[in-house]
Amino acid sequence: MRASFTWLPVGCFAAILMLMFVPRDCRAVDSGVYGRAAWRGVLVPGVVVRAYRDGKSGYLTDEVAHSEPTATDGTYRLPLDPGRYTFVARGYKSGGDGRPSSGDFYCYYSGSPVVVPKEGWAPVGFNLVKYTPEVRKKADRASIQGTITFRGEPLEKLYLYLYKDSSGGFRGPGIATLPVGSGGRFRASVTPGEYFIIARKRARGGMYGPVEIGDYFNYYPGNPVEVGEGESVGLSIETVTRISQLEEGGSAIPTVEGRILDGDGSPVENVRVFAYPPGKVRGRPMFFSDPSGPDGRFVLPVPEAGAYSLAARQRFGGPAASGEYHGLYEEGAPVEVGISGPGEEITLKVEKGP
Prior knowledge:
Elements: E1 7-9, E2 31-39, E3 42-43, E4 48-53, E5 65-66, E6 75-79, E7 83-91, E8 105-108, E9 114-116, E10 120-123, E11 126-127, E12 129-130, E13 135-138, E14 143-150, E15 153-154, E16 158-163, E17 176-180, E18 185-189, E19 193-201, E20 216-219, E21 225-227, E22 231-241, E23 252-261, E24 272-276, E25 287-288, E26 297-301, E27 306-313, E28 325-328, E29 335-337, E30 346-349, E31 351-352
Parallel strand pairs: 2-10, 2-11, 14-22, 23-30
Antiparallel strand pairs: 1-23, 2-3, 2-6, 4-5, 4-7, 7-8, 7-9, 8-12, 13-22, 14-15, 14-18, 16-17, 16-19, 19-20, 19-21, 20-22, 23-26, 24-25, 24-27, 27-28, 27-29, 28-31
């Protein structure tokens, strides 16, 4: 069966309105990303955008390519081969690489991984933060503590996630999830070792899911953080918010569309559709949709043509919870997605878990 599709702009996380027209004389370059970098709404020159293979990031990882420093208006262009990439923007006063210094600009792009199409340019904007180094003290046991802020003010009612490595793209629960309480403060005992630390506050509530409009997020610029035996590490983590999810002017991509219905044929709201490799409906999905609307409709961007198995559920990660809607399309049979014309619209049936 062939899925229906339409053409939509590529979604992106923008620091500010960063629409930038791609001139015709630049279209000889097949593909890549472009955009702007800003700090608290002010465009920032001299920032270098670095591309990593999906699932890898940080100053300890070999990059695939990097841009020229952003111009005086904060703009950049980075040609890349088609594929999936993680992006980091760094503006170091020293002009070098490695771990940032106090006051250096940094941003891990929360929309990663980004799919660069075979032909065209995807918009990727960076909402920068300034790095504050950790404070280390001797203690009875290894621990991390600190505060989380947004534009200098404490941010409350969010979660801090600890991961041992970057291979999973920082999706799911990691090895520990810490609630952040009054005044944006947190404290937790940990086993000595290295940790990647992510802060998230979801506007929809809950602990898991992609970063969406209105969410607060940040990847600590000093990642990975090493915690020694008998050491307390103090962190100051500034978050940014996702301003827009879709931008005009990006490359168009095909999408699978349809409706989520329950066993009685009624539309089901707030269910996502996930695309997996054929017959492998488990683990990390390749692509996923926004939650279905009140009419049960969903739109699943699929930038790479091919065959996919589709699944639906309300939450990310782990087995389906009691009472959670979930389901497989055609019992996991692969669906062909391409550009060969509209096909039959997909209806995906779901049921509640026991």
